[in-house]
Amino acid sequence: MRNPALHRYATRPGFYFTEDGGADVVVRSETADQVWLCVLESIDQPSAFFQDSIRLFNDPNVSFLQQIHEFPVCTRIIEHLYVRETLFRMTGPNYGLWYVHLPKAWDGMKYGYRVDGAWDPKHGVRFNPYKFLLDPYGKGIDGSMELAPSAFSYECEVVDGKVLGSAYGDMSTVDSLGHVPVSVAIDDRDVHKHEGDPEHPHVPWRKTVIYEMHVKGFTANAPWLPEALRGTYAGLAHPTTLAYLQNLGVTSIELLPIQAKQDELFLQEHGRGNYWGYSTLSYFSPEPSYATKAAQEKGATAVRQEVIDMVRALHEAGFEVIMDVVYNHTCEGGVEGPTVCWRGLDDLAYYRHQKSNPGRLEDTTGCGNTLDFTNTHVVTFAVDSLRYWAKRIGIDGFRFDLGVTLARLEGEFTHHHPFLYALRSDLLLGNLKLIMEPWDLGNFGWRTGQFGIPFAEWNDRFRDTIRTFWLEDVDGSSDFGRTQLQEIATRLCGSADLFATDPGRGATASINFVTCHDGFTLTDLTRYRTKHNEANGEHNNDGSSVNHSANFGVEGVTDDLDVITAREQAAMNMMGTLLLSLGTPMMLAGDEFRNTQDGNNNAYCQDNDITWLNWDWLYSPQKTREMRRLETVSHLVALRKSLDLYHHEDFFTRLTQIGLFKPSDRVKWFLPNGNAPAERDWFDLSTRSFTMRLLSNSEVDVCIVVNGVDEDRQFTLPSDSTWVPKWCSAEINGRWPGHGGVVKPNDDDDISVWMQHVQNASETVRRLAEEATARMKAEGMSDVDAATFAMLQESRSAPTAEFAKVTRRRTADSPEGGKEQQTQQRGQVRPTTAQTVEVDGPHAESSATVHGGGASASAEGTVSADKAPVDKAPTADVVAESATKPSPHVWTMPALSITLMKQV
């Protein structure tokens, strides 16, 4: 039996090619009076609709709107655009949907919609048939919006780049065609389209290391690529690019938005653009500007194919692809913004409106509008878009920008939101990596840890704690620390207070990060105490003023070796803590080689060398600081991936909720003298040195040793095993843990590993290498390498000198009294030798038992400490004796360092 015509059963909008050579087209507009499908053809080509359409001519007595209402199919020629527009009157609304069957359709066909209806902006109704609208489900896009009066549904003018007019004024009758982008049809019926697709990597959460990058910025300056491939999807898929990522060792590439974007009105008025891409123009179309010029010239199908090929290449190289998506708002902005799609189709249905003033939009995003996820059809639209990217493009996961906005019902957040259930229950999407940014700008917008299974979430508490511990607490800006041992232990242990919320949810749900696209880079965190966003043109008023950063005595770039050395080790301390903590680590592209944005912590509008990664250091014949950091970080990534201690997927179970405790023997804690912390130690702000032991029944244990003071310090490690250091943050400065009271130098080869393979590289690479070598010989040594070698010599001969001038030296005696009596903070980890997890608060009946001092989380995630007294630090005689006869369990850790010790 033949299926009936599509309009008889279709419930999804879209453009569907049919076997008769035409297409069924469906679009949603619940409150429109009439909708037209508009097809664009070149004048110098025969029209496909000559027999079906009535030609329209300019008539001073009849308006364009009256003419198109008169005929089912009509055509008009727009000479100045060299375009023929054919309008097909659609049938509807049928449950909010409008339908039409095109007798002919083809791949690459340009089209859009015009919609007529009421004009009542004070009640949120803004239909205007003079505005050419994109298809929300369109798979391709062509062109861009011009800052012109025609792009706005209300009467206005543009004077000196500023839009003047009232959004509540009269309707504009200026045609927008030619000044706004149009949709492009892509024929996806090929049954062989997925043949040859590589297997998806399907990296388990416990092995995942996320690497956040911008498609363009990553390769815009890449010297290994020909000019045509730089800053493109194809450039990211290039074999040399993939080899670099493999050498770094990350597993999952998280791309800043690659859905088609449009600059916000504010930026257009100021002559700037949205570089990050958090201003979506089309949720089904990839951003054309990241494609090669050749693909752009061929059209939307070629652009999309380049994206598909990029994803395939990443899969073949073993990487997952996670896509940052922005479903919380659109590029149309507030009511004063342009009309390119949703506003013209159905403003009331797509956007949230203020209850007391429906002519104004709710804005929990800071971008002027908020999509209405209380509307089932908006939820369906988002799910359809996500499924398309996952199924057709091959995306492995999504990170949802301002995720709280997507889960607001009647304005309030709930983790029971229908959209979240739609994602969980979808057979395709529910098995992908789904990551939430757990905040927005609305009421009670900070919701870290509250999304539940299967969502992972960005952990801002981890970010702030680690920055504070390694930067603010050591740069001399105050006389006391800010971070208690209980807080830093909780973050290292997977933030049980935030993520041990659902049965089966645990540490892997915490996306740990220190830096991301929004904020300082890792290097800038150690160079700048305050933001420097002057280039953004907002008088340095944009961007966060709370960065928990430090400059170590000098704001910005310096040639002071002591400052440089302290900064490098601080950066490695943060990177080490990130990659050695329980949870899922996320790195920012470029942090592994000292990338800087010159102190700009909000570079969203900087599509230039401020945000493009600088790769010049790659081809130096000697190891620059960038190369040393890269090797140090990649070594640490490899070590983390080699350990199977980072899953904690059994963090919390439903059995725990009903009182059936699941024993855990995963974590033990020690002070430098080898004793377990006492109650007071968890709250003493001077307790900054400790050992965290991760235990395993199936492989060797590891100890993560943190020396948070600015002097070398002895640590007594557990005596039941022999330990060897595998990684130390101080190795970036040529220092290494040693037995007894001496820190060892870490000699290293100064020849760049990259240079060993440069002879097989392209002519461009060889030329760069030769130029670098010649410059080194002519100048004796470059400033950067001179600083590197001087730093190495200094650090090897005077182990603690590099910190003395730029860090606050802590006294051995901690303050007594008040700090030790601070009230226990619910939800933080305080592992003990008592091996009992106690829960205070309303969930006191939910608890867990900890064997061997390991930490297990309950509903509140609180772990108590035993009350046993703790021995003081070893006396001078003991230290002297251990220096002459070092115990195999006593190691001296470099000042201000984090070290990974492995069981032998």
Task: Write up this protein.
- By secondary structure, the protein is of the alpha/beta class.
- Among the domains are: 14-185, Immunoglobulins (Immunoglobulin-like), CATH 2.60.40; 656-751 and 888-903, Sandwich (Immunoglobulin-like), CATH 2.60.40.1180.
- 23% of the residues lie in helices and 16% in strands.
- The protein is built from 21 helices and 35 strands.
- An eight-stranded parallel β-barrel has the order 16-17-18-19-22-23-24-25. The chain has a seven-stranded mixed beta sheet with strand order 4-5-6-3-9-15-12. A five-stranded antiparallel beta sheet has the order 26-27-28-35-30, with helices on one face.
- Strand 4 (54-55), helix 1 and strand 5 (73-78) form a beta-alpha-beta unit.
- The longest helix is centred in the middle third of the chain and has 20 residues, at 561-580.
- The radius of gyration is 30 Å and the shape is elongated.
- The model is unreliable at 753-761 and 781-883 (pLDDT under 50).
Topology (SSEs and partners):
Blueprint: E1 14-17, E2 23-28, E3 34-42, E4 54-55, H1 64-70, E5 73-78, E6 83-89, E7 91-94, E8 97-102, E9 110-116, E10 119-120, E11 125-126, E12 140-142, E13 157-159, E14 162-164, E15 182-184, E16 210-213, H2 215-219, H3 233-236, H4 239-248, E17 252-255, H5 265-269, H6 293-298, H7 300-316, E18 320-325, H8 342-350, H9 376-393, E19 397-400, E20 408-409, E21 412-413, H10 418-425, E22 433-436, E23 456-459, H11 460-472, H12 485-492, H13 496-499, E24 510-513, H14 522-525, H15 561-580, E25 584-588, H16 625-642, H17 654-657, E26 667-670, E27 689-694, E28 702-707, E29 713-716, E30 723-728, E31 735-736, E32 738-739, E33 744-745, H18 763-779, H19 783-797, H20 801-804, H21 876-884, E34 890-893, E35 897-903
Helix pairs in contact: 9-10, 11-12, 11-15, 15-16
